[in-house]
Design goal:
heterodimer, A: about 475 residues, alpha+beta, 3 domains, seven-stranded antiparallel sheet, five-stranded antiparallel sheet, extended, B: mainly alpha, 6 helices
Chain lengths: ~475, ~120
């Protein structure tokens, strides 16, 4: 039987064809009970208009699309999980680390900056940052936005030179780059009105970064990067020491860097020295100090925190030997109290203790003895050389204004629980003192500082200053 | 997919998340490096939106009233998360939104339009 599709008019290809090849409409091959117009449409099943075949095709297309979307979504989910759970921070190269850090610093993006800074050197700094920010907000020194809303910094065309120092360290300097700083007085915090009054107009400064560093006498300034667990990080400690040593090398006959520095020590495994209790930690540290064993001193601190210091151990030991310096002394009678802080940190308060230290070099001997008694230090100092001798004694206590301005009313260090014991954590100690000071400094001191700033900004006119 | 993509690009034009992504932030929180400012579990907050994006994508082929309601809930949840992020990350300033912020909002709009369309075509029944 031949004929045409009743839906689109396409010719039927075979007598037993059930669906139109052109439009997919259903074609009934069953005998028809048609009472009218039989000749033209005798094979079209008007009684069953629902197009079964197209719906199946639409459903299968939908299934394919749905399956594709599901696969794509699961792949995206895998990517998200890998990003959060599988990867660590840092950058693939020293150049990338510095580039990300500079960009993040210019844009005031704390997250991006922390991502490429050696974790051991910034752990715990967030608490100080939060304390400073809360205090600044409470004093009306910042708004809800950025730290310095009124200044917008952009860096363009940044080109860097990389001086590779072994497998674990690289010193990165700026070869080229432009900066733009935009000042918008409208975004200044209310308490800085005097700055807005003095500089009411929007300003923009452009320049090249190399020229800026030259003008600031920082020609040799660069950023030190180190490799930790396969990723590159900016090291604040390394940057300070490397830049300083390069400056020192340039201004003396002696080369401190890079020949004298063992940069591969950054990647070396160092057996940590852990005290079973806080008192043993301080004893171990004193022993290493008086033995002048700098490697052992570093082994007493959290490894990641002092990793960037390791290359300079030889430099320091050479310097001490050149100057004929030797130390002697010890600590006794420690009475310590501990208090748990957040995480693995423990505050160790020194209630009582005595110590002495003497330093001998080619010029003579200096020595000091002292005791800690609660809030008070008491001690003597003695210096002698061929033509000079001096003796002094004194007592100083933490009270009055010191407590008011710093919030510090006891002598303490912060230790970290490591491998079932303790290590002294210099960074956590500094952060603990600084956080207390930020929270304690009285509003009157901030008023005073703002008054002095106002006085300077207004060309030594104190009219209207706080 | 917009909700997944937004987590991989900078969310703002200035300040935190202007040169880093939500996933960078989640990784940083999870590392415990900023545990004093925000505990580790808060990293989950930053991956809520991409996770919901994955959920919507993975169930794209499913129909019915229950799925429609699930998608409606998802769009509402992402909208709430978006408002919270804009407030906390961008200081409630829409002019500070970067690509991530706009991708999220585009995802919300397209999600809402999709819900309206499927409701009109009987998907809710």
């Amino acid at each position: 039987m031949s004929g045409f599709c009743g839906q689109c008019g396409a010719p039927k290809a075979a007598p037993d064809q059930r669906f139109c090849q052109s439009c997919g409409a259903s074609i009934s091959t069953a005998p028809q009970a048609v009472t009218s117009a039989p000749a033209a449409v005798d094979y079209v099943d008007y009684a069953v208009p629902a197009p079964v075949a197209p719906r199946q095709r639409g459903a299968s297309v939908g299934r394919i699309l749905g399956t594709g979307a599901a696969v794509l979504a699961l792949a995206a989910g895998g990517f998200v999980a890998w990003q959060v759970l599988g990867s660590s921070g840092g950058a693939d190269s020293p150049e990338d680390a510095v580039r990300q850090f500079v960009t993040a610093a210019a844009e005031q993006d704390v997250v991006a900056a922390l991502d490429v800074v050696n974790p051991g050197e910034v752990e715990g700094l967030d608490s100080l940052y939060e304390a400073a920010r809360d205090r600044a907000e409470a004093e009306g020194l910042v708004g809800d936005g950025d730290l310095v809303d009124a200044l917008d910094v952009t860096i363009d065309g940044l080109e860097l030179d990389v001086d590779e120092q072994g497998d674990y360290s690289a010193f990165v300097t700026v070869r080229n780059g432009d900066y733009t700083v935009t000042y918008d007085p409208g975004k200044l915090a209310d308490r800085l009105d005097f700055v807005r009054d003095e500089f009411p107009d929007t300003k923009e400064w452009h320049g090249d970064l190399v020229g800026l560093l030259d003008d600031a006498d920082l020609e040799r300034f660069g950023v030190s990067t180190i490799k930790v667990d396969g990723a590159w990080y900016v090291s604040a400690i390394g940057t300070a020491l490397d830049s300083g040593l390069r400056e020192a090398s340039a201004s003396s006959d002696r080369s401190y860097v890079p020949a004298a520095s063992d940069y591969d020590a950054i990647g070396a495994d160092l057996e940590p020295v852990v005290g079973k209790d806080p008192e043993e930690v301080l004893d171990n540290l004193a022993d290493a100090f008086f033995d002048q064993d700098l490697d052992q001193i570093l082994a007493n601190f959290p490894a990641d925190q002092v990793r960037a210091l390791r290359p300079y151990v030889d430099v320091a030991e050479d310097l001490l030997a050149d100057e004929g310096v030797s130390f002697d002394g010890g600590i006794t009678g420690l009475d310590l109290e501990t208090e748990d802080l957040s995480g693995d940190l423990v505050k160790v308060v020194i209630d009582d203790g005595s110590g002495s230290v003497s330093l001998t070099d080619e010029y003579g001997t200096s020595s000091a003895e002292g005791t800690v008694d609660g809030r008070c230090f008491e001690g003597t100092t003695y210096e002698s050389s061929e033509d000079y001798e001096d003796y002094d004694e004194g007592r100083v206590c933490i009270d009055g204004e010191i407590v008011d301005y710093t919030g510090v009313d006891e002598v303490y260090v912060v230790m970290r629980k490591v491998d079932g014991g303790y290590q002294l954590d210099p960074l956590a100690t500094a952060i603990e003192y600084a956080t207390r000071a930020v929270e304690a400094v009285p509003s009157s001191a901030i008023d005073e500082a703002l008054g002095e700033l106002c006085y300077e900004v207004q060309d030594y006119d104190e009219t209207g200053c706080p | 997919m917009l909700w997944v993509a937004q987590a991989s690009v900078p969310w703002t034009r200035r300040g935190a998340f202007s040169s880093s992504s939500m996933l960078d932030g989640a990784r940083l929180l999870r590392s415990g490096l900023v545990a004093d400012a925000a505990p580790r579990w808060t990293s989950l907050v930053l991956v809520v939106v991409p996770a919901l994006g994955v959920l919507v994508g993975a169930t794209a082929g499913l129909r019915g009233r229950a799925m429609w309601t699930t998608r409606l809930t998802t769009v509402v949840a992402v909208t709430v998360a978006f408002v919270l992020f804009v407030h906390n990350v961008a200081g409630a300033d829409l002019t500070r939104l970067g690509p991530g912020g706009w991708l999220t909002s585009a995802g919300i709009v397209s999600g809402a339009l999709g819900l309206a369309w499927t409701r009109g075509h009987g998907d809710k029944q």
